[in-house]
Amino acid sequence: MNEQQILEILSELYELDPSLREREAEIRSVINQLVLAKPEAVFDPEFASNLKREIFKRVHSSASKKFSLSQLFNINFSFMNKTNYAVAGVIVLALVLGGFFAGQKQEQKKLANQRQSSSENPAAQQAIGSSEVQKTVSQVKKFASAEEYKKYLQNAQSISYGYGGGIAEKEVMMGAPVNGLSGLNAAQGDRLYNPLPSGNAGLAAPAAPADRVSQTNAQVIGIDEPDIVKTDGKNLYVSNNQAYPIYYDVVPSPMMKQGSGSTPGIMPPYRQPEQSTAVISALPPEALKKIGKIDQQGNMLIYKDTLVIFTYDSVYGYNIKDPTNPTQAWKIKYENNNQFSTARLYNGNVYLVTQSYANFNTPCPLEPLSLNDSKISIPCTSIYHPIVPISDVTTYSAFILDPSTGAVKNQLSFIGSSGQSVVYMSENNLYLTYTYMEDQVKIAFDFFNTSGKGIVPADVLARIQKLNSYDISSQAKMVEFQQIFQKYLSSLDQDAQTKLQNDMQNKLVDYLKIHKRDLQFTGIVKIALNDFSVSATGNVPGTLLNQFSLDEYNGNLRVAVNISTQGIGGLGGWGNSNSANDVYVLGSDLKTVGKVLDLGQGERIYSVRFIEGQGYVVTFKQTDPFYVLDLADPKNPSQKGELKIPGFSSYLHPLAKDRILGIGQENGKVKLSLFDVSNPSNPQEVDKYQLDEYWTEAANNHHAFLQDQKHGVFFLPGGNSGYIFSYENDKLVLKKAVSQIQAQRAVYINDAMYIVGTTNIVVVDEKTWERVGELGL
Amino acid sequence: MGGWFVLGYVATKSDNYIMEQELELVLKCQGGELRFFGQLYNLYAQKIYGFIYYRTHHKQTAEDLTSQVFFKALDKISSFNHHKGKFSSWLYQIAKNSVIDFYRSNHNTEDIETVWDLASGDSPERDADVALSMQKLSKHLQALNKHQKEILIMRLWDGLSFKEIAEILNLGESNCKMTFARTLEKIRTDLPAALVLLFLIKMIKL
Predict the structure, then answer these.
(1) Residues 147-166 (B) with a CB less than 8 A from some CB of A
(2) Domain coordinates in residue numbering, chain A
(3) Among A14, A559, A662, A749, fewest CB within 10 Å belongs to which?
(4) Residue of A nearest to B70 (CA)
(5) How high does pLDDT run on average in chain A?
(6) Rounded Cα distance, A760 and A228, in Å
């Protein structure tokens, strides 16, 4: 990859999102590192010519026409020498040095401008760790006008440091009030051990004839999550997203699998990819039938007569009253670089969250969506923002949609930082998170001023300190910092540079031990469902694993985070020996009320599940410590028990009271563990089963898992097959394996379980575990 | 400014020229003149080998699969439809499927991502030096999903255009671009702040 190609990549990025230009140096360095990490693929010339000869033989034996070897391989087009591989390495190396300082001139100019008007920035002066910035309650509020919005974003480009959370003013949002958002009335204790209710409480079509219909395995009972297979109890909707596209059908492969046991020579047939969703009549199970088709594909939600499909750039509502002829009822398109973040279905409303990068060129009102080609706008005065300006601005928008019309019932936007975002919805609140970093120059200054004291002389430190106080973007500061540092380095001789390098490496390790919780944060925004307003904001150190890292219980939010000290590719670093995992309990105002720190030091979180007053955390390095946390008293959470077993679980599912299933891996194979947590201080693995499979989607995506409590079984896909296990009497017993269908999901209707694969649907009778129906897709 | 414009124009023209030449070769092969297949081999052998190597990290495997890809392509070249996409995309698809097939038959999974799972005790055989450097990278890629990884590697390692990537993965071109941009952003923002200091150390070493 040469400079020209990198420039091409950058210009493609800017075309997509001009605001990325602001972060060119960083993006360049990411690209450089990824390119540097590319393994060297040495194309053995001897192999190349042998293969040529093989092909030559083949052509010779199949073609009757005359030809010569030189004709076959040695006719040169001028363009064939276009790429010169030999020099690639040199170019890349040069780029790492050059690329890091790219855009420097522009930044310097900006810096010069800023200097003239810069004011001392008190927050930036605070030391890391003792920093009040992260802890200070700073309110979020809405913009008063378009001018204020514009000004804020302009500031965000130039001012940057950490910010805290606070309580929002509750104001009446625009749009019609949301009705019917009362709390869930199901008995809490019951629901937690009934992850898949036998009823279909208000979510599916009321006319469903089935007594029992499964739902997608969601985090919170009664709050549905989009997935690729849905059922209303009569029909299955299958949106196949796994087909590997290919332009041909069956290909004989002469060289394949020689000596292996399988049929040589024939590759499995590849189907022409189809962007569509199949409608399949599910009843009776013996007579599965494809009855309809929808020309869109993606995750789905179903509510009454509407099937909602989330494609990569749009949301479609299809009327499925007549499932043989679904008709498009509405279409929402993401506008202005908005991207799908997540969606939920609850109490007859679809909750949709989108995100987009923002920059000061983005006008407000925002227009994140269009419904049936007319733009939906969010006025400037409905956008929340932290009072303290932030950098790396990303706009998150949340909507309440009417599933039957697509109409937006309520909406809000808020400004957060770009970064990994996790969304969790409880019966009362929608929680959105994003990660952000402490200002890098602030950290650098703090490092040289504390653990790294003496590494750079006082005058250099003073310059860094001064730089740190400027009210300019962290990006501009970083460029300037690099220059200060580089200048100092070049004043040293080789010996001194080597010494400095070692000193820095050494001291950084010390520094990180102390400050590992001061570098990266997760911001949390809480949106009350009843009036759809931001009701609180807060932050915790570290990053979240996934939506299961968040859980609301008795008004408190429990958050499991990983504090990483791990380097990224090519950077090396100090390994992960100092990494830690913490659980925080935040009050309704999202202020920390209790915490458990340092679970599994040197390890990282593989799975989390909070169940009422307890929390279960699996961390992993070599063995799998399964931690039981007592969170009954939010102010005094504690680690109750710990169990060390081989392998790890990456999904935890409460099967029954005091019984948790862990799905994960041991020695590279899928492992199921059944934990007895009746005695929290002494959790036990009462049974385990190692599947002869290398991978199951259920380990990474809870939607692939299905529990049927009535029959005491659960389903998970593994490799190409689907597996149904019984968990009765604390024994994991494999009841049925459905092989060779590339199983993805399962649903049940009455006493029939439908295993949905990419190629087939197989129905098994849950009483006999016999196959009773089958349909090719 | 003017210079850039001219440069861009020339580049576009020569790209088209290459594509036309390539298509002519393909059409000749489809017409039964298979001797022209050798030139297609010359054009793509190294690229396809690289594509497979980045996904298997094992020389022997990559060579076996590269052979398969070209034999398959030779056998099935008449089924290639140039109205549906570029020849290169077709070839890369065969390569992608061969890799999937390799994992399916040898490791009971069609998950190419197995190759990144270096912690697994039963990980596929791979070249020792690559295994070492991949260990660092896999940490980096851990947080990314299948598509994000694939698009990142196709663009940055295989040097494929978004048009080609879109054709190979059967996704929209703008979707691929957006995913790529967001993946880079994700990596960038996931970078812990203090690592920048280490980056500086790295810089001194270079």
Answers:
(1) 152, 155-157, 159, 162
(2) 1-102, 440-517
(3) A14
(4) A55
(5) 75
(6) 15
